[in-house]
Each structure stands twice: as structure tokens, then as C-alpha cells.
């Protein structure tokens, strides 16, 4: 289904920015939980890094329920209640996580239990709000605006990370548990208020889809219908593989720079910043190209997914080569190129996700977006853990950090090439389905 129904209205650029404000709000709450509280647990409280690591993994793991939440939003005419409800759960979870962390200083078991509940709430909130938000963006964006819309929304989420990290960081000094709770509560309150005002009324401009009681089916049947679609299934494998490779290097790149290249913490942090800057550049390039491509945007996005993954694999191999050649290797340039390649394939994947959400069985957009969101969350949960574990095992096997990091980076480069192969299968299936539609066109609902 490639066109919007007559009872729907396309999102304007202002609407897209308003949706981006919800993503900004999501990012503002998440960055406190995954960054600030992580540091407090390890540094101020003195807990093993495994403790926040498990909590972070839980907040990703619970998002495997995204398809179910997407199905829930498919069942009604509006997705706004799911977005607002998810933001409320996320915000309460963020504030509760700060309370649980502060409580660990005096009562560790109770603090850990409260934090466990809080991080599960964070995962539920991100999954419920994020899935419905992206589905709304997918079904109501003009095809030529999908790549730019995805870039705007993701850039605004990154802005939420940055703005909150800077402002909350200043507000936390001088540090105390009470101040941390207060700052987290303020951030959560602002996030739920901004997101509610931003999303309110967008769906009044047109109903997402006509409500058809005959299309309401149990989740298991809806999921089976979606999973039976070859393109949806193959795209799920691509999302998991590419995001697994993307996240597997996230926690080991800076230690690699310190151990192999002798960089200070400040220098390795700057190196990570160069990668994120490259990601932003890659996203912007795809957004501009997608907007200029017009009706050829779908083909462009497929090519960017494949090319971006291949380029990521080559850049990852170039980073690995630095471990072999030594300090004279231009590691900063290699990491910047890696960021550009990552930005190209990731935003192209999101644009393709938005385009493909309406394909296949009708009224299953939320289930599809939930399935792909769950694949990404699972990849993020396993990627960082696997990357760090692989380095530890390789260091034990080789007895030296340099060959350990080099071998792991080369393994990640191979995963990017595999992801490119999977993306080519998705593109091939897409071409075949469109060819079939030439002889058996689908009926569009007026």
C-alpha cells in the first residue's frame, strides 16, 4: 500500500518537528537513566559495573514486547493515547530509577529492587511510546519526506541526549542523592509535558485508518500474518544483524583507543564524539538525497542500506588495521568515516522501515514497527554485552589487547558485510513483490 487513504492527511513539516519533540523527550529521560545513574552506581556508590549493565540490558530486553504494544495501537483509530501513556510510564520510571539509585547508598537490596522495577518501566515506556510514534510517522508521512523526517526525528532525539546531559550535569553539582532525585523528577515532568503538548491534536487532522471490527484479530494471529511476509521477515533479520554489529563496537572503541593508541580519557571521548559527528553527517546526506530522489526514494534507501553496511564493514576493518600498524595509523579519520557509514545505513533502514510498515496485510503497521523495534532492542541488549565479552575472551586467548581488539573488530566488519547481504535480499524481495503486483494489483481503500 503506497498511498494514503482519502480519510488521512499527510504530516506537515511542523507536524514532523512536533513528533521530533516527543523523541527529544524520550531521549532526555533515557540519558539520565543510562548515563548519569550508570556513573553514580559505579563511582559514587562503588557497585560493580555489572549491576548497571544488567539494568540497561533489562530495559532493552523488555522491549521484545514491542510487537504486542504495536498490535494494541493497531486495534483503535488513534495512536496518541499509546504515545502519551508510554511517556507517562517512561517518566515515572525515570524518576523512580533515580530514587532507587539514591536509596542504594543506605539500603542496597531495596534500592536494587526499586531500580529493577524502574528500568522495566523505562523499557515499557520507550517501547510503547516509540513504537506508536514511529508507526504514526510512517503511515502519515509523504513518501518523499520519509528519509528527511527520520533524520529530523532522530537528530532531535540526539539533541535531547545532549541538552539534558549538559543542563542536568550542571544542576547535579554539588552532588547529593536528594539533588539527583529532584533533577530527575524535573526532567521527567518536563518530558511528559512537552511530549503531550507536542503530539496533542496531530491525529485530529485525519483518522489513522477507518476502524474495521472485522480486522480486529488476536495478537498471535496478527503476528503470524506479519511474520509470514517474506520481506518483513528478511528485514527483521537485517535490522538485528546490522544493529548488533553497530552496537557491539560501542563499548570497546574507547578502551581500544586508550590501550592501543595511548589516548587519554579526554582524547578517547573526543574520538567517540567524532564517530557521533560522522553519524550525523551520514544521516543528513541520506535525508537530502532522499528528498531530491522523490519517487525514487525507495530504491535509494535500499542502495544506502547495502552501501552503508559495506562501507561500515570496510571502515571497521580500517579501525582494526590500526591495531596492527600502530599509532601512526589515522585512527581518527577511520572512526569518522565509520560514523558516516553507520549514519547512512541506519537512517536508510529507518526510512525503509517507515516505507514498508504499510506493506503486506492491512492494519498491521504497529505490529511490523514493533517487530523491527524489538529486533533492534534485542540487538542492542546483546551487542554491547557480546562485544565486551568477546574482547575479554580474545585477550585471554592471545594474551595481549592489540590482537584481541583487532580480531573482534574484524568479526564486526564481517557482520556488516552479512547485513549488506541480508539488505540485498530485502531489496530483491521488494522488486519481486512489486513485479507480482503488476499482474495482481492490490485494492486500495478509499
Short structural summary:
This protein has 446 residues and is mainly alpha-helical. 79% of the residues lie in helices and 0% in strands.
Structure, explained:
79% of the residues lie in helices and 0% in strands. It has 446 residues and is mainly alpha-helical. The protein folds into 2 domains: 9-208, Growth Hormone, Chain: A (Up-down Bundle), CATH 1.20.1250; 217-435, Growth Hormone, Chain: A, CATH 1.20.1250.20. α6 crosses α13 and α14 (365-398) runs antiparallel to α15 (401-439). The N and C termini lie close together (12 Å).
Question: What's the arrangement of secondary structure elements?
Answer:
Elements: H1 13-44, H2 50-61, H3 66-74, H4 80-103, H5 108-140, H6 146-171, H7 177-199, H8 219-227, H9 230-248, H10 253-261, H11 265-293, H12 297-325, H13 331-356, H14 365-398, H15 401-439
Can you give the mean pLDDT? 84
- Give a quick account of the main beta sheet: strands, pairing sense, barrel closure: none
Q: Determine the number of helices (DSSP H or I, runs of at least 4 residues).
A: 15
Strand tally is 0
Instruction: Return the string of H and E elements.
Output: HHHHHHHHHHHHHHH
Q: Measured on Cα atoms, how large is the radius of gyration?
A: 22 Å
Return the CATH architecture of the largest domain.
Up-down Bundle
Helix content: over 70%
Tell me, what is the CATH class of the largest domain?
Answer: Mainly Alpha
Portion in strands: under 5%
The CATH topology assignment of the largest domain is Growth Hormone, Chain: A
Helix/strand/pairing category: mainly alpha
In whole angstroms, the N-to-C terminal distance is 12 Å
CATH superfamily of the largest domain: MFS general substrate transporter like domains
Number of domains: 2
